[in-house]
Amino acid sequence: MTSTTLNPTRMRRAVAAALCVLAAGAAGAQQAGVQANAQANAQAGEKAAEPAAMQPPAGQDSPAQDTSGQGTPAQATGSGQATVEGGPIATVEVTGIRRSIRSAEQIKRDATQVVDSINAEDIGKFPDRAAGDALQRIAGVQVGRDRGETSSVTIRGLPDVVTTLDGNDIFTGRGRRLSYQDLPVQSIAGLDVYKSATANQPEGGIAGAVNIRLRAPFDNPGQTVTGYLENRRPQINGSDAAETRNSPGGGLLYSNRWKTDVGEMGLLFDAAYNKEHWGYPVQWVDRPDRIFSVGPDGNAVRLNDDQPVAPLNPGDRLGNLPQVGGIYNAGDRERFSAHGAFQWKINPKLEFTTQYLGTGYRARSEVDYILAIVGWAPRLNGVVLGERGCDTPEGTICPILSANAPAAQFGGPYDWDPYVATSGWGVKERTNTHYLNFGLQFRDGPWNVTSALAFTRSKFINDTVIVDQQIPNATVNVYTYGADGHGGYNAVTTPGSAAPLRDPRAFVLRGLVQNWEESEGKQAQWRTDGTYKLGQGFVRALNAGLRLSSRSTSYHSAEGHSDVNPQARPNPVDVFGPSFERLIPGIDRLGGQYYVPSRDFLIDQTDQVRAAYGAAAGRVPDDPTRLFDQRERTTTGYVSARWQTSVGGVDVSGDAGVRVIHVKRKLEGTSRIGNVITPVDLSTSENNYLPSISALVGWRDNLQTHLSAGKTLTRPDFQRLNPALSLIPPTVNAPGTGSAGNPGLAPTKSTNLDATLEYYFQKNGYAQIALFHRDIDGYLQNFTQDEIIDGQRYRVTRPQNSGKGTLKGYEFGTQKFFDFLPGFWSGFGAQYNFTWIDGDNETRLDVNSDVLTKTRLIDVAKKSHNLALLYEGHGLTGRLAATRRGDYVEQVAEPRFLQDRFVKASTYVDLSLSYDITSNISVQFDAINLTKEKYESYVGDTARPRDIRYTPTTYGVGLRFKL
Description:
Blueprint (H helix, E strand, L loop, with lengths): L7 H12 L63 E2 L2 E2 L7 H15 L4 E5 H4 L7 H5 L5 E6 L2 E7 L5 E5 L2 E2 L18 E7 L13 E7 L9 E12 L11 E14 L2 E23 L5 E4 L5 E3 L14 E4 L3 E24 L2 E24 L5 E7 L5 E2 L2 E2 L1 E8 L2 E2 L6 E2 L1 E26 L2 E25 L3 E5 L8 E6 L14 E26 L5 E24 L9 H5 L4 E7 L4 E6 L1 H6 L1 H7 L15 E20 L2 E24 L2 E25 L2 E12 L3 H4 L4 E3 L7 E4 L8 E13 L5 E12 L2 E10 L2 E10 L2 E14 L10 E16 L9 E3 L7 E11 L2 E10 L2 E7 L4 E5 L2 E11 L4 E8 L5 E6 L1 E10 L2 E10 L1
Parallel strand pairs: 6-9, 15-21, 37-41
Antiparallel strand pairs: 1-2, 3-8, 4-5, 6-7, 8-9, 10-11, 10-53, 11-12, 12-16, 12-52, 13-14, 13-15, 14-18, 16-17, 17-24, 18-21, 19-20, 21-26, 22-23, 24-25, 25-28, 26-27, 28-29, 29-32, 30-31, 32-33, 33-34, 34-35, 35-38, 36-37, 38-39, 39-42, 40-41, 42-43, 43-44, 43-45, 45-46, 46-49, 47-48, 48-51, ...
């Protein structure tokens, strides 16, 4: 067909008719994603405000007059006025980070619910590579760091957070949520954290919701090319022998828009790649277990399980000596992403958008254990007892702070106490996630119709090979509580070596464990939302929506255990050659370097390893008892009304509605408890009703209040429903460990109340206080109990629903640029927020009992702070950010003494500096974890320490450009 045969008008009508099929049956709506719209609805006399889940796609232009009935947040632009509740914001020229912060303020100010945001320009001024890193900059949000990455996100202390991508569900693997590490900030236009819910928001998070706004071509006025190149060097703390290596990264974005005969079109593409060489040492002290009778002379005798817990001799005292060990975690990982978006404004009333996001993860890593099972030694000498942490449910049993455990043989030639060993895990992983979304928005008069069709597919594959090796006839001198409150080794010796951990000839082979898993998640989701604007009465607009979702997840895996001849264990070098052993950096407090089976040997020469153990080549055959499959179909509808009135001269507006969810679920798998294996085939359905109401009270031009009440729920993650049991075998004198899900888990439900008082400073900045209360039912907690499986004892951890709980607290936050100061000083600014939380929960301490005990909520810190000092001016942008999370309970009633396991408070400090060489080129310096902060935990009392995990300190330099 030639251009002379094409009638643009007819084509537009035909395409519009075809695309409107997506929106058939809808009364009117707005698609997910926050649109910063500079024009409020002055004719309606109502504030431009609505939750992100109901807003048009990011970057989309607005018609000359907003007819949605709910409006959209105003964006602070380089010039002009943005009308808000009570009056206009003064016209101020703002650029860079100031513009970004002001835009986030406007979103917060205009929303009908409690929301805090961070936008693209602001994100780019932090040393953040991924979405989770950026989220820690938002008030009330805390993050967990693991292996040098942000691995978890909590809102006001609760981990039950729903994640959406422009309003649609997004997940990684078989989970319900996105792995925040996978999404680079390169693709992000903004992040919105919703702490209260409205009827049009997807359900799934009692703590709140995180909506990620992807970049779109209409975000930019024309052609834009931006990119970055950077290099980072992680400095591994806790291991002086660890080398520092380069971790390069880069990204490129192209965006353009143009006028055509068939409407305006825009195209955007961005890609990012990061490679990291990381290390994460961990020193651990096991939970309290074995008990000794300690004499006044420092000699001690272990009490057996069939003995009373009582001193053996007059003058003896009881002491507890846990095992002491460590893990050197390290590896190479690559993360890459590709994101594309196409927008087409077919005519002033109709717009089509499609977005694709693909993320990938590749990793080769090692988990290198070192352990000394000193608690099973029959006798100790040189014992030093602590004077704190002695009160236990079994009487006065003090922690043993240090002791010498001499070698003692109790059986065959390799049955020695203490059991001293190292273990090498070769781990190879990969993840691929694909997300595709089609959206259509139609606006005409009082109607606004949005429809979206999205598909997600994510697959995760893991292969792990583990080989243990033992040092027989070893004597270990340990301390469990040193000068910094944690344990380590004073010495590990054998009759033939003063440093056997660094002698590859001192080891003998123990067992082989090989396991693998493949898990996949798929989802198709369709939503149509609508708004009909009524006019100037009390009810200003009616909203309704329908969402259909089909989600499936599958999991299959296998695990195999093998051993060599237990009566004639060979040296590993004699079996595999010298390349099998690798001297790793180790952990300083455990004596530094030690030998382990090489990661690369285990991954690349797996068949040779298996052959030495008499196992067939290849993977362990698929285990039918570990298969898991779940299909979940959800039908969701909501109705709500947007209302506005005046009470005593005070403008009040808000939203009231209800969300109705019907879920049908089919779950198939196998449960194993002890030696009892039970097939699981469950078909269930449930209905949930989630009402909500919110109000925005405009006390004055610059003073307002958000009020909201509503019900929310969180469904258990699929992996927590999977009953398949995964086991790590026991040693000759220590129990094995295992984990499994629980197919009987119910959703966690909550009734939420929120209130804020917000004051907005002239030109920029605000101060606010927020109060919140949550009544929670069925909070998920892990429970560990001993199980006998094939004659061996295992510590098996499974999740369970707890009883009822509450969470309450307040937030205080403020941010301001000091533009009232003269000259250079006007470039400074600050952001600060503080959150105080109190919570309790009814916990089942015995999985076989229905008795509930009042305990603290796990993972909830009472206090948290975020402070950032800012500077922008004269081409220089700087941020010094400190994030403090208070202490919190990680596990309730940990055996043996049923004491809570606490995590100590921590403060992470990050620095970011950039300088504009030209208007299009800047250089950046980043420093992450300047204070070398680390994770530290203890049981009951700090005199009983558990883990110390060394978060790396990372330095980076980068070049950013814009063409």
